[in-house]
Amino acid sequence: MADDGGLPPGLTADVKALIDMMARGGIADLSLETASVKLRLRSGQVVGVVASAPVPVAETSAPRLEETDAIVIPAPMIGTFYRAPKPGEPNFVEIGDTIELGQTIGIIEAMKIMNEIAAETTGIVVEILAGNGQAVEYGQPLLRLEPRPPA
Predict the structure, then answer these.
(1) Residue ranges of the domains in the chain?
(2) With the C-alpha atoms ordered 145, 96, 26, 84, is the resulting torsion angle positive or negative?
(3) Are 82 and 95 in contact (CB under 8 A)?
(4) End-to-end CA separation in angstroms for the chain
(5) What is the DSSP string of the chain?
(6) What is the pLDDT of residues 122-142, one digit of tens each?
(7) Burial environment of residue 94 by CB neighbours within 10 A (0 to 12, 13 to 18, 19 or more)
(8) CA distance 75 to 59
(9) What does R_g of the chain's alpha carbons equal in angstroms?
(10) CB 72 within 8 A of CB 144
(11) Which residues of 52-90 are buried (b: 16+ CB within 10 A; e: fewer)?
């Protein structure tokens, strides 16, 4: 597939500009709709592109909060983020910890239900972006990971 991900020529530069703005502003989810185009970008992937003529879904690299190989773990739902299982207990993860696929990295309370948030990838925690007891939105970055080198 071409570097432009199959987008119409006039749209390619605009999509790249939106991805850059997302990265600079820490935006994890962006929807845009005009008379001829519907576009939804989500951190990690382009979900869909619809134009007046058939256009293949674009494949692009994930928008990053910084120009690094860091991986961002986003909130999968709206609620209150907690770093520990209960008050006074140790946090699930700390900066410098290596996390594994499926490991609990925190809890989001939504509608009085405590939902454990599992890591969808492996890596080393380099930044914790959501505070304990902080209200979070869907897609809001919770942690930033450095990819773990292959074994």
Answers:
(1) 1-66, 71-146
(2) positive
(3) no
(4) 31
(5) --TTTT--HHHHHHHHHHHHHHHHHT--EEEEE-SSEEEEEETTEEEEEEESS--PPP--PPP-SSSSS-EEEE-SSSEEEESSSSTTSPPS--TT-EE-TT-EEEEEEETTEEEEEEPSS-EEEEEE-S-TTEEE-TT-EEEEEEPPPP-
(6) 999 999 999 999 999 999 999
(7) exposed
(8) 23
(9) 17
(10) yes
(11) eeebeebebebbbbeeeebbbbbbbeebebbbeeeeeee
Tokens at 52, concatenated: 């007046």
Task: For 54-77, write each residue's pLDDT tens digit.
Answer: 433 433 333 444 445 778 899 999
Class of domain 71-146: mainly beta
Pairing of strands 134-136, 79-82: antiparallel
d(C-alpha 146, C-alpha 25), whole Å: 20
CA 104 vs. chain centroid, Å, equals 17
